[in-house]
Amino acid sequence: MGKGDKKTKRGKIHRGTFGTRRPRIKKKRSVESKININEKAKVK
């Protein structure tokens, strides 16, 4: 139960892998990418 264990968080950090114990942190999308600057406002 330590660095050599594949199933623990410490073992995942030691090996440099990811899994259910140590999921990847997803990057948040920036505001600029959500709002399309090139499109004009649609008039109803």
TrEMBL record:
<dbReference type="GO" id="GO:0005840">
    <property type="term" value="C:ribosome"/>
</dbReference>
<feature type="compositionally biased region" description="Basic residues">
    <location>
        <begin position="1"/>
        <end position="29"/>
    </location>
</feature>
<keyword id="KW-0687">Ribonucleoprotein</keyword>
<protein>
    <submittedName>
        <fullName>30S ribosomal protein THX</fullName>
    </submittedName>
</protein>
<comment type="similarity">
    <text>Belongs to the bacterial ribosomal protein bTHX family.</text>
</comment>
<dbReference type="InterPro" id="IPR030826">
    <property type="entry name" value="Ribosomal_bTHX/bTHXc/bTHXm"/>
</dbReference>
<keyword id="KW-0689">Ribosomal protein</keyword>
<dbReference type="Pfam" id="PF17070">
    <property type="entry name" value="Thx"/>
</dbReference>
<dbReference type="InterPro" id="IPR031414">
    <property type="entry name" value="Ribosomal_bTHX"/>
</dbReference>
<feature type="region of interest" description="Disordered">
    <location>
        <begin position="1"/>
        <end position="44"/>
    </location>
</feature>
